[in-house]
Each structure stands twice: as structure tokens, then as C-alpha cells.
Amino acid sequence: MANVNVLDMNGNQVGEITLNDAIFGVEIKEHLVHQAVVAHLANKRQGTQCAKTRAEVRGGGRKPWRQKGGGRARQGSIRSPQWRGGGVVFAPKPRDYSIKLNKKEKRLALKSVLTSRVNENKIIVLDDLKLENFKTKSMVKVLDALKLKKALIVTGGEVSQNVRISANNIQGIKTSAVNNINVYDILKYDTFVVTKQALATIEEVYA
């Protein structure tokens, strides 16, 4: 089992915690991690793009000129794709891009990236994270103490409003509730920062 130092908001060590190997010590399945990222990005696509084909563009029912004898290339409609105002070849239509992953695959992919963060020493456990008011300066002070530039900060339950608003304008920082974490965000940010309360929830849900 891996042991990780517990830090306070000033970056001082206040204890040590043992991580559950069932979550933070599994065999890393790279193919499942890849599938989870692909599914996450695909599911974010709206799929509302739409353009008209030559069959849907208004007009063009009459042949613009006779087939032969005019010295020009034959044309059947002024709404063919090569004409200005014509239809689009293989026009995109609304579609569903979503990709389904099995529940076990999702869980194993999440465990894999959490394990990778532990193996790379890119996980920070905080004793607690509370701000008295929502000021960017207050959050920057905490980040400087923890030496964080690009991090995903996960808190227990709903993200504290003060923490969320204070981190909103800081580039490279994202806050998330423990029930909203996903493989893509954990990989995207260099450091995975989690409070003890959120860590307990993760181990309870995924163990």
C-alpha cells in the first residue's frame, strides 16, 4: 500500500495517509484509459451540424442550357455542388457521436489513471480546503504554497462556492466535486489534488 503525506493549505505536512491498493494500486490498463478518453471527447460533441445536399437546396429544377451545341460543359442543374449556391457533397447531418463504455470498464479506467498519478508522485492530499471568501488572491496563495501550476482540485460533496469562484479565473486550475471526476480531466492536469473527505468518498465508492 502506498503512503502519501497529508498537507495543510500552507503546504506543511500534518500527517500521513495510506491509499487503498484496490483503487490506487491496480494494474494500469492503457487501452481502457484510451477508450475512456475517446468516449469522453465524443460524448461532448453536440452533433447538431447540418448542411443541405443538392436535393434540399431551393431551385435548380430546370436544366440551365441544352445538352449539346452550346460549347459549354453539360449541366443538369444550377444547384449541383460545383455551382455557387449549390448543395454540399456528402453534407454533414445531425447525428449522435456518443460512445458507450461498460460500467466495469469505466471504473477500471479511472482506477488506472489514479494509480498512474500515485506512481508518478503527482497526487496531493489536503487535510481540508476552505476559504473564508471568494477571492482569486486567496486561492493563488494556497496554490503558491502547494507549488501548483496546473492541477485538478477535487473536494468532497459539492465544491465549496468560495473555492470554485476563487479558482475560476486561474489558468490551468480546475475544481471538481468528487462525483464528477473523470479520466480525461485527471490526465489533462499535471497534479491530482484531493481533500481527505473526497479521498474517503472515492475509496468508499470504487473499492
Describe this structure as you would to a colleague.
With 207 residues, this protein is of the alpha/beta class. 34% of the residues lie in helices and 14% in strands. It contains 7 helices and 6 strands; from the N terminus they run ββαααβαβαβαβα. A 6-stranded mixed beta sheet has the order 2-1-3-6-4-5. The chain is elongated, with a radius of gyration of 27 Å. The model has no long low-confidence stretch (mean pLDDT 91).
Short overview:
The chain has seven helices and six strands, in the order ββαααβαβαβαβα. It is of the alpha/beta class.
Stretches where pLDDT falls below 50 for ≥5 residues? none
Biggest sheet features: 6 strands, mixed
Order of helices and strands: EEHHHEHEHEHEH
Within the largest sheet, what's the order of strands? 2-1-3-6-4-5
| Strand segment count | 6
Number of helices: 7
Distance between the termini: 14 Å
What percent of residues are in strands? Answer: 5-15%
Helix content: 25-40%
Rg, nearest Å: 27 Å
SS content category: alpha/beta
The mean pLDDT is 91
Q: Based on Cα principal axes, name the global outline.
A: elongated
